[in-house]
Amino acid sequence: MLGLEGQDIRQSNFGWSPVYVDSNLGVLSIGFMLPDPDEAVIWRGPRKKGLIKNFLKEVYWNELDFLVVDSPPGTSDEHISIVQCLGATGMDGAIIVTTPQQVSLIDVRKEINFCKKVGVKVLGVVENMSGLSQPVMDFKFVRMTETGEHIDVSEWVREYFKEKAPELQDLIACSEVFDSSSGGAEKMCREMGVPFLGKVPLDPQICKAAEEGRSCFIDQKCGVGAPALKIIIEKLIENNEFSRVLLNNAYAS
Amino acid sequence: MLGLEGQDIRQSNFGWSPVYVDSNLGVLSIGFMLPDPDEAVIWRGPRKKGLIKNFLKEVYWNELDFLVVDSPPGTSDEHISIVQCLGATGMDGAIIVTTPQQVSLIDVRKEINFCKKVGVKVLGVVENMSGLSQPVMDFKFVRMTETGEHIDVSEWVREYFKEKAPELQDLIACSEVFDSSSGGAEKMCREMGVPFLGKVPLDPQICKAAEEGRSCFIDQKCGVGAPALKIIIEKLIENNEFSRVLLNNAYAS
């Protein structure tokens, strides 16, 4: 996702050194420590806890504006260990990411209660995969035959739009994808008294940028997803009175 | 997802009794054991292992055609415990679910190697969220103004289609969503020598059915997703010579 495959962690006089994407973005992952990237890391909790502790204590992070720990879903070993290791440093809090359906929100309610129980402030909830928005002309179009086969008619549709329906060419088509008729993350946040930060739609261009290790902010390609992310970042900065200088640094990379 | 919220596990003479969706589908989940559904289960590995063992050994499952264990992503406590507890019974194998992008496939390669290492046969890999397919008329359409605002023009577009472009009304619009230019799960399966079972598109109707606890096979609503699932089930039955009678039983519920 950051284009760092195959990189190694280096040992410096001060401890392990993170791998740098850019002068202002360092990364550590167990992926850097495996001889074979496909190898499974078959570890039970205590070993995972040991590594998390090493990543926080034995790594020379230098001066940091933000330390972001990307954790798996759940409320188990990783989460307990992170809270135990970082608790003393006075961490700002947790950002919780969900998708819009009830089946996800059920789990996210548990995560929020975990944070409340262990005394971690919930900085806010992000609703990811919040519908798909894409320019009409970027879709593929198929016609289903009577026997259930799909025939690709994209070329024909694009010609049709150009010649007969030019008014439709610039439209953006949106699908809800996941059912959010129950109110989604926004309603859950109101019910649980935590900030709602915003929605990020499924944007194929953002997915592509992530695959290629490109930032979605350096060009105009991610026209649907990048503005949604910016709104969330702005809100996070504002709500928590983080320095705006840091924000501008972040966009630059 | 199965419409079982608020149900309790019962104690019978033979042990714990699963909660039945239907006479041929019993379910057990830690969710049934919590007094408050929002409460976080803050357990480290050993307690999770204990519960998994109880679910397998202390529950009166009666005669089963299939026992499906839905596990979280990863190769840690849950997976090791399941393999240890079920190893002696001669389990058929593991079905691995992924999404099409490289960032998911990197993790799934590790899962496959985990299975190989612990001697669990990989029955196959399913590519989920494999693009979005939806009838054109089910989309919402917006026009972006010069200031970046979105104006909903869905009504106008639907009228336009009806009056001026009726040929377009029956089309299905497809978006790749996640970048699969690297070949997706199918290519990975070829490389790793495991069966590829098929692709399941993001189908808003299936998402809705799951939210409401409805089977996608009982009516024609899930016209895009249900046929995709059927192909996968058929392949699984065929590859592994499972009894076809069982398959028909399964569709009935």
From TrEMBL, chains A, B:
Any one GO MF term held by the record is: ATP binding
SUPFAM superfamilies listed in its UniProt record: P-loop containing nucleoside triphosphate hydrolases
Record's keyword terms, sorted:
ATP-binding, Iron, Iron-sulfur, Metal-binding, Nucleotide-binding
List, alphabetically, the InterPro entries matched.
Mrp-like_CS, Mrp/NBP35_ATP-bd, P-loop_NTPase, YlxH/NBP35
Give the UniProt entry's GO cellular component terms.
Answer: cytosol
Keyword ATP-binding applies: yes
Extract the PROSITE patterns matched here: MRP
Gene Ontology annotations of biological process type: iron-sulfur cluster assembly
Tell me what this protein is called. Cytosolic Fe-S cluster assembly factor NBP35
